[in-house]
Amino acid sequence: MDELFCIGCGAKIQSVDKTLPGFLAESVQKERNPKDLVCQRCFRIRHYSDVITTCLSNDDYLNIINRISHEDALIVKIIDIFDFSGSFVPAVKRLTGNKDVLLVGNKMDLLPKNVKPEKILGWLKMMIANEGFSVLDSILISAKYGNNFDDLMEMIYRYKGHRNVYLVGSTNVGKSRIINQILRRYCGAEADVVTVSTNPGTTIGIIGFPLSDGTMIYDTPGVINKHQYTHYLTRPSYKLTVPKKEIKPLVFQLSEGQTLFFGGLARIDIVSGETGDRINVVTYFANTLNVHRTKTERADELYATKLYSLLTPPFRPEENVPKWVFHDFKIRDNLKYDIVFSGLGFVTLRGPFNIRTHAPFVVGVYVRPAII
Ligand code: GDP
């Protein structure tokens, strides 16, 4: 059969994977004229002003991003403030040809309310500077509650001039929600939202929406961040691990030889409290995730016998969580650090400390200066 393409975005039509570009159920394909096919994503944008961001492999993603390098544009880079390292793709600037970049930290609603947004913004700026990355400006938003969207749009208009705008970010940063908010608020919910075909015949196009001044805002596909648990858990388990509401931090006083399990998904051992004192460990995970404390000498046995019962999620062996590996973190100074389990959560503790983390080998575990 000839290859078919979506007339909206140029993606190759396929009926295998809803999350990939060009998805259209086979039954629908049969009812339509092959010359007039619109993929599910474009259909939803046209009829419901609803965007589902598609996922791409790294290479395809880089190709798409690279296309932008031929245009003088404003890049709006979105990151998940709950998972900075997992969602920050430093190569974006080089790939887009060192364009002007605005940084948007999404999901601010997850952080405890008593933390000042200015503090988080200051932290974000420091993290970017540490990466050797410079941006024109940065802002925190919540796509879930629509916080700060007027300021975001004002910022975009201030910096873009007559240029088009491209939204970039890895999967799960909340890009679909952000675009939906922008469409509903600033492009008119019922407005004639057009999907713009790029190069017909390629496997993916970039979808654009007209702004009030005639320029375009484009949604680019999200690069899959494989270092996240998302890709290994069933939906019910995943729902329990992703924080949905403001996180309520838990405080543990731990001494050498003690361990905390985060469900059956990760673990942290206090190898030695270097000062011999107890260490305050504050945990920031979804409130629905079970945190269990035990002695390190019993931890392996507990994991072997109580995974799927006491240590949940996961709930079933079929969830196929990849094999665990450990990482050691030794801190000598007395500053506060976060140990981050990408896409799951983080713990905050003050140095000096010597700890060991355990998590699936595919999951990124990082240390960073404390966000709070
Ligand atoms: P995309 O892959 O970047 O398009 O991300 P989605 O828009 O599909 O969002 C990924 C997940 O993050 C979903 O579970 C969303 O409900 C959630 N999410 C997105 N934005 C926010 C936000 O501002 N706050 C919270 N709490 N969750 C969000």
Number of helices: 10
Q: Unreliable stretches, pLDDT < 50, 5 or more residues?
A: 190-203
Helix vs. strand class: alpha/beta
**Tell me, what's the shape?**
globular
Number of strands: 18
Mean pLDDT: 84
Bound molecules: guanosine-5'-diphosphate
H/E topology pattern:
HHEHEHHEHEHEHEEEHEEEEEHEEEEE
Strand share of the residues?
25-35%
Q: What gyration radius follows from the Cα positions, in whole Å?
A: 22 Å
Ends distance: 56 Å
The main pleated sheet reads as:
6 strands, mixed
Largest sheet: spatial strand order: 4-3-2-5-7-6
Into which percent range does the helicity of residues fall? 10-25%
Please sum up the structure shown.
The protein has 372 residues and is of the alpha/beta class.
Report on the structure:
There is one protein chain. By secondary structure, this protein is of the alpha/beta class. The chain is 24% helix and 26% strand. The protein is built from 10 helices and 18 strands. The protein has helices at residues 26-31, 40-48, 58-68, 84-87, 92-95, 117-130, 149-160, 175-186, 235-241, 296-306; strands at 55-56, 74-80, 100-106, 137-140, 165-168, 207-210, 216-219, 222-223, 250-254, 258-262, 266-272, 279-285, 291-295, 324-331, 336-341, 345-350, 353-360, 365-369. A 6-stranded mixed sheet has the order 4-3-2-5-7-6, sandwiched between helices. It is globular and about 70 Å long. The model is unreliable at 190-203 (pLDDT under 50). It binds guanosine-5'-diphosphate. Guanosine-5'-diphosphate binds next to α8.
